[in-house]
Amino acid sequence: KGMSSVFASALKKEGLNVSVDSGEDFFSRTEIKMIMSFLYVLDNPARDVHMLSLLLSPLFGFSPDEAADIKLNARKCGLPKNSSLFAAISAFRENEKCREFLDRLSFYRRLSVSLSVGELVEKIYDDFSLTCVALSMADGEQRKNNLLQFSLLAHSFSESTKKGLGAFVRRM
């Protein structure tokens, strides 16, 4: 259950009716891991686990084979074996899907400097129709509610700390 009860308590104090069910940690839920991976990558694109998770997510829709091809291409381009996935994607920029991914990533990284974390999360939700993506999954209503709770958490963090994305992801 981890931090779920802590966040559920904080959200209840904000007047939101929250329940922590099925013993699954709030941050272990697929939809929350998806937005968290996005935020982690925006903060530091060299985080390979989060980068791979983001690439394979419904937001960007890379297949496991495409991700493997990116890494293989990086080796062919002379990048060291231990290069980050971000470096590999950058080396494969002639690939349209990689180029579009890098362009979007760059766009949101620029936004992350000027928007609060709450505003950034809302922008991502809106641009990617993330609540609709959640609704299309099993237990869609609950997943949508989880995303809305996460958005409230991000807004609450922004209002209470006035700190940016880096502080938010370190707190999580």
Please state roughly what percent of the residues sit in beta strands, choosing from under 5%, 5-15%, 15-25%, 25-35%, 35-45% or over 45%: under 5%
Sequence stretches where pLDDT stays below 50 over 5 or more residues? none
Structural class: mainly alpha
Biggest beta sheet summary: none
Number of strands: 0
> What is the residue-mean pLDDT, rounded to a whole number?
88
List keywords for this structure.
172 residues, mainly alpha, 10 helices, 0% strand, globular
Describe the structure.
The protein is mainly alpha-helical and 172 residues long. 69% of the residues lie in helices and 0% in strands. It has helices spanning 4-13, 30-43, 48-56, 64-76, 85-91, 96-114, 117-128, 130-135, 140-161, 165-171. Helix 2 packs parallel to helix 9 (140-161) and helix 4 (64-76) packs across helix 5 (85-91).
Kindly summarize this structure in a few lines.
The protein is mainly alpha-helical.
Protein topology:
Elements: H1 4-13, H2 30-43, H3 48-56, H4 64-76, H5 85-91, H6 96-114, H7 117-128, H8 130-135, H9 140-161, H10 165-171
